[in-house]
Specification:
640 residues, Rossmann fold
Length: 640
Amino acid sequence: MRWTSGGSPWRQTAVLLVDGLIAAACLWFALLLRFDGRIAEGYLDTLPAFAIILGGYRALTSLFFRLHRWSFRFSGLADGVRVGMAAISATGLFLGTIYLLRNPGPPRSVVVLELLMSVLLMAVVRFSPRLAGLYVGDWRRSRSDESRRTLIVGAGSAGEMLLRDLQRSADHGYHVVGFVDDDAEKRHQVLGGKTVLGAIDELPSIVRRQRVSQILIAIPRLPPRRIRQILSLSADLKLRFKIMPVSYVYIQERAASDVMQDLAPEDLLQREPVAFAESSCGIELAERVALVTGAAGSIGSEICAQLLDAGMRRLVLVDLNENGLYLLGRRLARTHPDATIDLEVADIRETTRIGALFERFRPHDVFHAAAHKHVPLMETAPGEAVKNNVLGTRHVAEAARRFEAERFLYVSTDKAVRPTSVMGATKRIGEEVVRSLARRSGTKFCAVRFGNVLGSAGSVVPIFKDQIAAGGPVSVTHPEVRRYFMTIPEAVALVLQAAYGDYGELCVLDMGEQIRIVDLARHMITMSGLVPDVDIPIVFIGLRPGEKLFEELLTEDEERTRRVDQKILVADCPPPAIDLEQRISALGDAAAAEDLELLLRLLRDLVPSYLPAQAEPPPARASKAGRADAEGPATWADAG
C-alpha cells in the first residue's frame, strides 16, 4: 500500500496503531465483562497473544480498507460501512487463525462483544472530530452578529446536501434553524440535526417563531408558480431569498452552496430552459456568414452570442450605437477568439450604406433586430418610427433579396397585434413587408412575434430595480395591466430555431401565461428583503399614450395556427395588400414631410386594426388614511 493522500505518513501510522490498540483494549474489556471482572487464569495467560494477533489483524484490515487515509472533515455513511467491514474482516481472520492453531480461543460471547465495541470506538474516533466541528461551527454562527438565521425550503436530497455543505464550510453566514417541506411524511423528521418544522404554507408563522431572515430554496426546478406563492406568503416578513436553480446531477459536481444564487425575476416565469446550441437545426453553421442589425441591443447581442456558441465563425454586427457596438465586439472577441467579427456602424434608413454592406459581406443569414421600440416616445415621434421600423426594415429586407441571402428573420412584437400605438402599427407593417417578400423571393423570409423579455434595455425589470434601489416609489401604470414575459436567452433560442426551421412566413412564440405587472413589482420588492407598500410604496400612474391593459399574440385572421415545435406556432395569415409598396412609399413621404395627420391616417389605412389609445389618468388608490388619491407623476421612465 502506498502512503499517499489522507494525511502525513505519521498520521496514517498513528491511525493504524489506534485501531490495533482499540482491538486489544476491547478484547480485554470483553473478557472482564464475560467473567464479571475476574478473568479466568487460562484466558488471562493467552490474552497478550490474542491481543497482539487481533490488534495486528485490525491494523491490517484497516490498511486494506484504506481507513488510514480517513478524512475527518468529509467522512460519510459509505465510510462508516468501511469501518464495519474492516472490523468484521479482522475478526474473521482472528477466528481463522485460532482455528488453525487448534486453540479453543476466547468464548464466542467475548468475540461478539469485542467486535461491537471495536466498531463503536473506531467510529467514534473517526466521526467525533467532524461532529464536534459541526456543532462548534453551528454554535459560533448562532452567537455571531453577522450570521443570518436561515430556513431551507425543501427537505429532499438537494436540501440535505445543501445543509451538509453549509455545515462543512465556515465561509458563510447562514445559521440554519430548520427546514420546511410540503411532504407530510417528513414533518418533524431530523436531517443533519435540523428539524422539518412544517409545510411551506406555514412559512410566515415559522419565520416569526424562529426569527428567520434568510430563505434558501433548495428544490431544483421548483415551479415558478410555487415561487410566486412563497413570495406572496413572505411579502411582509423582510426576508432575503436565494435559490438552487440546477438539477441534482449538476449539484453533485459542485458544492451545493456554490450554486445558490439570489432569487431573480426570471425564476418567476413558468418556462422550461431552451438552448439553441443544443438543438438540431440540421445546418452546418461554421461556414456561414450572418449579418445582425441592432446588434448592440439586448436581443441582437444575444443573437450574436448564441450563433457563435452554436458554431458560426463569421458575424457582421450592424448598429448605429457605435459605443455599444464596440463594447459588444470586445466581449465577443474575448469569449470567441477564433471567430471573425466585423463591426459596422450603419443606419438602416440609408439604402446606399445597407446595400454596400450586403455587397461586401454577402451574408447567408440576416437577423433584423434593429427597431425603435419605446411606445411612449414613438407616440411623440411617429415619423421616426416609420422611417426606422418600416422603411429601414424594407431597406434591409430588399438588400437581402437583391443579394440572394438564404434566410431573413424579422424580430417582431406582440404589440403588432391590434396595435394601439404607433410603434405597434409600424412593427405590424414591417411584418407585412417581410411576408410580401417571402411570396416573391428565393430568400426564406420569416417574422417571429413574441412579447416582453425580462432584463432588456428599457424594460420593466431594470426600471423596477432602479426604483427599489432608490427607495421607491415603484411606478406601475395600472393595477390590472398584464404582459407576456420570457427571458432573453429563451426568446433568442426560439428565434434562431424558427429562423433555421423554415417553418413559414409568421412564427409566434408560445409565451405561456401573462403576469400582472403589479404582482411582479411586489415580488421584486419582497426579493429585495423589503415590504411592499411599507418600505417601498407602489404608485399607479395611469396608462401612457399607446399602451393597453392586455397584450395579444394573434389576430382573428391568424387564429388558425399549427404547432411546429413545443413553443413555436406558425400562423395562417391572409396575403398582404397588393398595393403594399405604393402605400408604404406614401407613408414614407408623409414621414419625411412631418405631415403627422396624413401619416396617422395612412397608418390606419395600412393597419385597419390600429386604434390609437388615449392616456388614462392614474386610477384612484386608497391611502392609509382611507381617502382616495393618485400618487406620483408619470414619466417616460415609468414601467408597466
